[in-house]
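tool=predict chain=A
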Amino acid sequence: MTAPNPPSGSVPAVGVQRPSVTSRISTRIYAGFFAAVALTIVASVVSWISFSSVNESQNQVTEESVPELASAFSLAELSNAIAAAAPRITIAPSEQFTAISAEVAAAQEEFEELFQPLAAADPGNIHIQAIAAATEDLNDNITTITADMPRLYGLNRSIDQLKGEISALSDQTSSIIIPALDNQLFFQATGYRNFGTEPIDVFTRTSGAELLVYRHLNAIQADIAQTSELMSSALIASEAGFVEPLRESFESAEDRIEISLSTIAESQMVPGLDSVVSSLLAKGSGDQGVFQVSIDRLKIIERQDQLLAANQSLSADLLSEVNAIVQNARAGADQAARNSAQTIDNARIILVVISAIGVIGAGLISWLFIGRVLLRRIGRLSGRMRTLAQGELEEEVEVSGRDEIAEMASALEVFRRHALEIQRLNLVEQLAQELSERNEELQKVLQELDQAQDQIVAREKLAALGEVTAGVAHEIRNPLNFINNFSAASAELLEELAEIYEEIEVDLSDDQKSLIAEINQDLNDNLERIQSHGKRANRIVQDMLLMGRGGGDTQMINVNELIHEHSLLAYHSARAQDPEFQVLLKEEFDPDMGQIEVVPQDLGRVFLNFVANAGYATNKKQKELIEAGTAGDYTPTVVLKSQRTDDRAILSVRDNGNGIPPDVAAKIFDPFFTTKPTNEGTGLGLALSNDIIREHGGTITVNTEPGEFTEMVVELPLVRAKAATPVADNGGV
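tool=predict ok
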């Protein structure tokens, strides 16, 4: 395509006569600049003379007053750091003690380096002398506290170790004594030491010696509990005076335990008890025992408290003296600043006169040349450029004059002609772009059809899986019915046995009556537990049957209760697969949530899937932390929330697992995408959950922070706009 011929009368871009040197705008501007430079040189000479005088006054401020004031302020800042050093050291964790001690020592050295020149310059100053005395006392106290801290850390570690050892030994002692008590009581009641021997006659098993063994076993159990409590109380005592009475009570209990141990030693009924009890009692004796360690620790703390109190008084005196030095330095700096200000005022008057001359000259240049000649022509050219930018390309550009502006106008005319040609080319490109966009839309529709076909196949597979789940639930329900029915029948038999027992009660001894009553109570308690857990299992089976049915009609349901029930179902399902699975379920439901219109089975599947995924993530993170030895106080937690707005329900499930990386978060709703092992997830849970929420007219949003948390947020309308086909889901990502 060829460019159109230029209109008649237009000025061609090539062949414009270059302007002469004297008529060029650049020549005129250079002349004006040279005049301005001349005025600037004159102003600079005058300024040089004026600022030389200002510099003399300023040197007095910068070289004498300001350094003195800066040193005083730095001294005040370092005195604050030294005053706060002792409390920092006393509360420092052991792993940070060395670093904090080094910081405090550095602050002390820096304070000394800054203070020595001031002291040398004015040794007779009473403020300097007071600062020196207060600093020396503060440093001595800090040195004492620093020296005590390693010993205090060691005592704290010993106390933590003793707490664990006392608890372990106490549990070990109980694990020996309690079975021995049960065996002795069973022997006295039945005469059997074990089931492979003949029973002992009633007179022997109820003799005074056997009763004495049982009484001493009880006494040892009580005294062991008392000694453990006394040692634990000593470890948490707040004053050293509280520990000594605890030690005396411990020694009394220790004597009683030794007497009881010597009494039952001949019976040889409790092998190993003597060594375990001796190990436990040894934790309270000696210089490394509980009571002495606690006293040593509390004495160090009391000494540190006294030193901290003394430091507070010394710090107040030190800050007062440092502030006095700061005030003196500030007064000197203020006087020097006033002298400098007077010099600057004189120089300012001279500069104002020179500036006025320069402003008048610049105004004349601007008005006569720039305003009346240059800017007026540039304004006309700029207006024509704006009209070209708006698309008005038909009107020619006016060219007049022989300077640079005339050259710009000629170039703009060439640009106008080229723009007309480009406009025609753009129309062709636009049509080609529209065809390309239509083609891309058709490709996108084809991909969506393929995805819809894959989802239909997945739904058919999950519907079959739901039928299998319902069948398994029915099979489990039959033995559950037998358990519940026979437990109820056993309870009735126990009631009949109680009636028979009342008839023969007069013929039994007190020990037999006590034993029968205890056995009867244990049987009733066991039956109650069987019935309770049988009903619980029946509820779980009922929920599985509801899950197996799938779909359903829309109903107005309490969404808080639905989330609660399915979160428990997900929890029990995970516990059934992994007995060590633990997670804390927190519910933060809106009490005004009320009811919303949903398909309960479908929405239940969504939150069953969310809670199962959250529990899996937190359980996995806990296992990883335990393997790394960094579990600390981490608790797997899943938070369930609901909130009602004017027209929507906002529901969320948040866990404190490892979060989702950005590249994975973009794919979690894709069918068959999963991060779980092959045998633990199908990759369909979140994809179908997303379909269910969309069919309800809602949305799912994923909020996550890698290594911190993941939150699934569902927004649903309170009333469904239209019915939707329910989707079965038994998978998970």
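The first strand starts at residue 555 and ends at 558. Residues 404-504 form the longest helix (101 residues).
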